[in-house]
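MOLECULE: protein
FOLLOWS: sequence and fold
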Amino acid sequence: MIQSWQLDLVLALLILTSVGFGLRSGLVRSVFSLAGGFLGVVVAVFTVPLISSWITTAQWRVPASLATSALLVLGGVTLGTRVGLSLRHRLDKTSLKLIDRTLGGVFSGVAVALIVATLSAGITAIGAPALSQPIASSGVLRTINDLTPSTVRLWIAQLRFAAIGKDLPSLADVLPGRPAVIPPDAIDSPALAKAALSVVKITGNAYACGQNQSGSGFVVAPNRILTNAHVVAGVQQPVVESARDGARTGEVVFFDPVGDVAIIAVRDLPTRALALGSVLAAGATAVVNGYPLGGPFSSHPASVVSVGVLRVPDIQGNNPRPRHVYTLAAKVQQGESGGPLLNAAGQIAGVVFAKGANSPDVGFATTAEDIAPVIASSPTLRKEVSSGGCTVG
């Protein structure tokens, strides 16, 4: 498997080479070359998951994904370079040559960094451990992401979601007693900031369905992560990515398709476990943590519209069974499934599992009462279990 330091070395050389290319080629040629490359990246983000789903032999998925990405990007660069070269020859005959070359170096370095970030997002979406782990642990990519404006990172996440094309489950909106009004102000505290470090991103490939899956989870015991069962359904090797501790491959050691709860075991995870809180009452404020659209971490406010027993289908959409559920006023998106609902003290109040079918401001979470037995037994769960059949959505 590729090591993160090897990937960092390649990326650093690539960015330095691009700066040199920009200084030599000038701004005009660089713009057209990299515009072509970026077009190739956009096509690759959509194409790579599709190619991955077509290949039935697991060991060929990574080489095919890399080859497809390389061919599309190089093709775009070649096309753009031909257009830009003819325009640059005209500019070299003017006094703007030095300015053109300097700006070309700056532009090329920044543009290649963004291209790398976008392409890595698309590759990560296929959920292949051999690629997802080094990408998530790369210091160069982490630095690029930290320097990238949040609006750009959101755009990359939206592009990745369009490539995955799998939404989270939805339930009919049940709003007894009070309207769904999302709290206007974000809740922030040292306890919540500390709790955010225990929330992880989960990706995986359900090979039987040929689909890529992304969700969230949170640490509930040493080396144990709780998430929704539908996030890892059909996934053999889920990849768990922590904001501070990099990426690791885990294995499913508990899987309940009726309660939509799963436990992933991960080795040598230093991230601390979250404490379990009590069930929130209607009207209480809370926080939803997760990785919407498989992108950067997000923490946003929610309020409890109601709490009670609802009949909820299993992860395949069949056999409704009673569950203790919060109806939330919150904007829940794909990728936040399996993320925690936290109280103001940063304790677990529930786990998010669905959005409202008719309203973008309604979400649903299983209460702490229902997941408490699973959390209590999680340290003793060591044997890998089947993650069932994948869900199609």
Q: What stands out?
A: The chain has a mean pLDDT of 83.
